[in-house]
Amino acid sequence: MLRVAAICLMLVLSAGCAALPSITAKRESLEERVKNYMQAQMDRKWDRAYTFLDKSSRDTVTLESYLSLNRTRKTSNTGFAIGEITMFPSGDQATVKIRMDVSYMGFNFKAISQAQNWVKERGEWFVKSDLQPKPYIKQENQK
Q: What is the pTM of this model?
């Protein structure tokens, strides 16, 4: 009986260890996407940053509106660090805490916290945006 319990315990532990590489791979691919997204923002390459938005965000805010919203911003990101990554059990959603350095009208603000929600679509990570289009900019998908 003790032998059967030991075998069951080893099977459970080995199954748990087998899942670790999958979680690590998902975390690494997410971290790489977050770095690229944040770097595009720092470089003010808004068309590139837009490609990181999830489908629902792109359906809400067109590229033209996104470019307009960001090109007129008075702030600029001058640095960032990825803090905590919390992966949902499903493995297709995550919350990423970012610390950003921001410059605004000659003032520098260090380590401003931001939480980003990321979702996996078609096998790749995308960020959910909370941007809303300006009401006076005509959206392509509006009728």
A: 0.75
